[in-house]
Every structure is written in C-alpha cells, then in structure tokens.
Amino acid sequence: MLNATKVRLYPTPEQEHFLACQFGCARWAWNWALENTQNTYRETGKGLTFFQMIPLLPPLKKEHEWLHDAYSQVLQASLRNLAASFQNFFEKRARYPRFKSKHGKQSIQYPQNVKIVGSKIHFPKVGDVEAVIHREIVGQIKTVTVSKNPCGHYYASILTDDDIPMPPISTNGKAIGIDVGLTHLAITSDGSKFNNPRFIAKSEKNLKRKQQSLSRKKKGSKSRNNARLLVARVHERITNQRRDYLHKVSRRIVDENQVIVTEDLNVKGMTANHNLAKAVSDIGWGTLTAFIKYKAERDGKAFIKVSRWFPSSKVCSECGYQIGEMPLDVRSWTCPLCNTHHDRDINAARNIRDEGLRILASGIGATAGGGNIRRKLGRKSSTNEDAVESGSPRL
Fold first, then answer.
1. What is the pTM of this model?
2. Among 263, 297, 355, 385, which one carries the catalytic annotation?
3. Are the beta carbons of 47 and 21 closer than 8 angstroms?
4. pLDDT for position 129
C-alpha cells in the first residue's frame, strides 16, 4: 500500500540557494520539453514521448553548463511528469500542460537516493535538511517531492510502499447517502448535517485590507514582496483550515459507515456561475469527495457515485412519486401522493443512498443495510455510474 507523508523542511540559507537552483533547472527543463513537444507536433503531427526526450538531456547539458547544478534524476523526473501530464490530458483526466513560472509554488521530485537521517532528510546536491518528521516513515521510499509555497515555506512529500495489500471491499454494514449544499457542507441520509464554516467569508476583511496594502506598493520593491507574503499567509491559513475541517468530516463519515454514496457533481461547471463561484470554491465539495473516496478504499469500504442527473430532490423517498419542478428556495415539501413531509436535503440524501444500493445490487450484490433497494417510480436509471468496488463492473 502506498502512503504519502508531508513534512515541513527548514533549510539553511545556503540550502535554500541549492534548492532554488534545483527548482529553476527543473522548471526550465519542463518548459523546454513542452515547447519542443509542441513544435514537433506542429511539424510531424506527433509529440515527443518520455523516451524520446531523455536522450536529448546530455547534449542539452553541454550547451547549458548551468544545468549541471541540478541533480540529473530531478531533470529526468520533470520530463517524466510532463509525459504523464500529456497522458492525463489525452485521457481527459486533466487540462493541457502549461508552461511553469518562477512565481508562485515551486516543486521538484527525487525518484531515489533520498535518505532519512534522524530528524533530517538527505537530498543529493543539497545535503541534510532539517525536518519535522511528525510520524514514523514506514516502508520503502519511492519518491520525495520537495515544494516551496508562495509563503516561502518548504515541504517534503514522502511516498512510501509498506508492502501491505489494499483490503478487500466489504459491503456488510451501514449504508449512507450524502447530499451536499451551500447552507450545510453535507447532509446525510440519517439526518446529520455538517455546517459550512465559510472560511473565506470569515477572513474576507483581513484579506481585503492586506490586498489593498499590496496594491499600493511599488512593483519590484522590497515592501511589495513583504506585502505579498502577508497576503499569501492569509490564503495559506484559509486553505489549512478548510483541509483540516474536510479531513475531520470525511474521517467521521468513513468511520461510521460501510457503504458511502455521493453525487457525481460538476464542480467546475458550477464555478462558471459568477454568483456561486466563490461559495462553491470555498466549501470544497470536490476535496471532500476525494477525501472520502481514498479513506474508504484504504479501510475496505464501498464508495459509489450517483449520476448528477439523478433527480434526488424531486423524488419522494417513501413512495417514489416524482414532482415536476422544485426551485432552490423550496427547502421542504409534502408529497401529494403519500402526504409525507420532507426536508429537501435529507430526502435527497436518502434517494442518493437508495440509488447507490440499487447500483451496488446490480453490480456485485448488496448486503449493506440502510434502506429498501427498490426501483422508484419516475426515476431515471443511470448507465454510466462510477462504482469503485473491487470486482464491480462498470454499469
């Protein structure tokens, strides 16, 4: 099983200089390879693969002597990551690779020859860097990614393999459906509601004041750089608060349930609406879903996504009656067929749970308890659900 541990680094000024050389050379190699790949594609109709780019590095080092300041494996990893980025783009998992800038976050990857020596981490051509290793690093080190954020903080993400296989997926236990919203982060089929902390809104006045101060500074001045760091630290604090909260919510959901069903939301499409973009970006639906998914897989629990077109809010979870229209301002409604009064979000979560169990039953057979697995009246069955259970066919 692969495990990633992120630790804080405290390099000396001299080591910061060496790391800056590594960042710069790796960034230049990425941009050079991306430009050559684009030019080759325009001329021949085909781009360059990783194995076609690697032989070009030795003559490139002779042409640019300063590339010798970088560790050779770092340059190779940069080209490998570019090839992987193109692969992800062609398979529609990511956007087209872009040129890297010296501004903002910087990162490099060491595929080998990194050692943990006590409370320090040894990097080739950099030396032993002081680190805060807050937990035991178990297993063989596969790769180490060193990054520097806009605040000037250094981190190392250590990927290890402990040779422990992933646990088999089991569906014996409680099933739960999750509906997300803006008033509440998540609403579960058992009636639990997780509040939306609105971290950006709470820090908006502080952020506005620091951004206004930054805008008044002269470009290229030392005071402008100091003001930029203040703004970056506010953003980092907001990011850390959000990730901490989402980790806690996802951990609780996974610990208390065996089968977890969510909606396959188009978060990117929602952020195109300028009225909702800030709120949707702040709440972090996509991050929450990703956290729940990887935690469930590591614990041997089933995770299922229901189609975004499934009418979870419009269907009565008791009798299956589907109403025509339901505006967003309607937060509760009464079924005209069975007279059951529904909280809009809880009813949607129950329908999501039942639809997930139906998908699970049609795939590998459901044994989870949590509701009746039956076809509701008026439901639109999905034919392309993303079921991630081991051995489950794609429906």
1. 0.83
2. 263
3. no
4. 95
